[in-house]
Amino acid sequence: MSINGKKIDKLGDNISDSLFEFAQFDNKEAEKTGYSNYSYWKSTWNSFIKHKVAFLLLILVIGILAFTMIQPFLPYQKSPTEIYINAGTNLQDKNVAPSAEFWFGTNSIGQDLWARIWSGTRTSLLIGFAVGIFEAIVGIFIGALWGYVRKLDVIITQIYNVIDNIPTTIILILMTYILRPSISTIIFALCLTGWLQMARFVRNQIIIIRDREYNLASRCLGTPTRRIIFKNLLPYLVSVIMLRMALAIPTAIGSEVFLTYIGLGLPVSIPSLGNLVNEGRILMMTPTLRYQLNFPSVVISIITIAFYVIGNTFADAADPKNHV
Amino acid sequence: MIKYLFKRIGQSIFTLLIIITVVFLLLRLMPEEGYLGTNADKMSDIQKETILNNLGLRDPIIVQLGKFYKNIVTGDLGKSITYRPDVKVSTILAQKIPYSLCFGLVAIGLALVFGVSMGIIMARSKNSIFDKLGTGYIVIINAVPAAVYYLVIQLYLTNTLKLPILFDKSNFMSWILPAISMSLGNTAGYAMWMRRYMVDELNSDYVKLARAKGLSEKNIMVNHVLRNAFVPMAQYLPASILYTIAGSIYIESLYSIPGMGGLLVDAIQRQDNPLVQGLVIIYSSLGILGLILGDIAMTLADPRIKLEKSGGGR
Fold first, then answer.
1. Taking the CB of the first residue and of the last residue of chain A, which one, N or C, has fewer CB atoms within 10 A?
2. What's the pLDDT tens digit per position in A259-273?
3. Could you give the angle at the alpha carbon of A190 between the alpha carbons of A187 and A195, nearest 5°?
4. Is A258 within 8 Å of B151 when comparing Cβ atoms?
5. Single pTM value for the model
């Protein structure tokens, strides 16, 4: 047996008087045990970038976002709505295959597909972000009330049951059928159903958390409900809120494509990814014109998959249980 | 159980009543041209008024609503206006429902078989190449708009597999692609849930105990893990019905299947209000029915779940 490298034979060998002095209070030493350099957002970020695919997709999405913003201001860009006339024949440049002049070709009336795809991406992302933000605000607000104010529980549960019983697609179709198709109509129709899932999740979490001891203590000390909701409860919900917001974008894009197909989408004058897919679908039986379906489909797939994977990975990373 | 069931059905009927009322009132907001038929331009104002009067659209809204309830109870959903003028909506639907029902049931059946087995394979060989391929499939199906991959399937698979591109009742080959396309989304859903629960269950203490006492891996799977994993499967049933409804609207129209989904698209494009109204009510009832079925299936799969409210609730 040895202590500090010194071999000891008898138990009493290592005992000295210094062991029996009173310990002095040292602030630095005391801090050592309580201190941890854990930071929530830093840990979230660290576990996010461990997932390489998601990290690459995040860079890709940031790139795409930046590009859709600056694309109209770059040189050699064409207008998404202008119909191009061939100078030689004086006819419209209909269905021109991808070339140096028209990078992604032109559509059936002679508009530049490259410009239309990026303009459409802007429209679709605008719808997605608007729906995501609205969903988060309304969903969290109603969910917090629903979970926290017991008197409202029965009423909101009934409203939830009624809306949740109708297939989302049917609500979407009905709303866009009644209102005139436009960007705001689609946003409205998507928001009408979108907040439900968020509200239900927030409510369930809050019911689990609200009676924990620290909330009981807060309530006893007279903290107002609003403050308890925002300071004690909401931080627990970050991961799922981010997930729902990230998933709102693929959902919104998908719904827009679907609505356009059944004839309730945006007017053709506003380029959107749904409109582009639909225009491509009409021509898809001619093999040489399939590029008009393929290009928008590929762009849609990349954007939706990227947001889906990023959303899921971020939700995992934002969950403190997964922080090491 | 029976008491609960009655309460549950009563609640569903109440929900349905609200939906019917809201749908009815919302459709009253539509422009009246929808009720005038195809040659509205040539009519004089008096003719238009006569048609609207005959349809009862000039009555007070409460009277209209009362009439509407009474008609629905007797199964009368009004008459189509533009789709097939003056044919009863219920007659049109009666011809369409068998196709939709057939495709829907086949699609859910396919999804159950493929999805559950896919989930089991993925969970048993976690982190293997199968697991990764399956996860990739689930991500793609969940993220990419169904409208896009249905189109890709119709366009490219019909070419490579030499299958017919449009539906034809008498040609069995033309049934294959629509049914498979319709099941893709639910396959991904079932596989995802099945994998997640299987992984959870396989790490749980009772499975470790079963292994420790020397039960065979097959015995553990069949008698312990699967039995527990079926509960969430039953829970997913209503969602899968809703999913199939959404898919059928698109697919039936894409392959020209003469079912309800394709009919809804046609009715919308022709602004046939009574037909849209009837279809929306039928689809909502289906959704509600699916939820009840899911709850019942859940109690059957897991005897621990009691649907009656037990004491001690807050």
1. C
2. 888 888 888 788 888
3. 115
4. no
5. 0.80
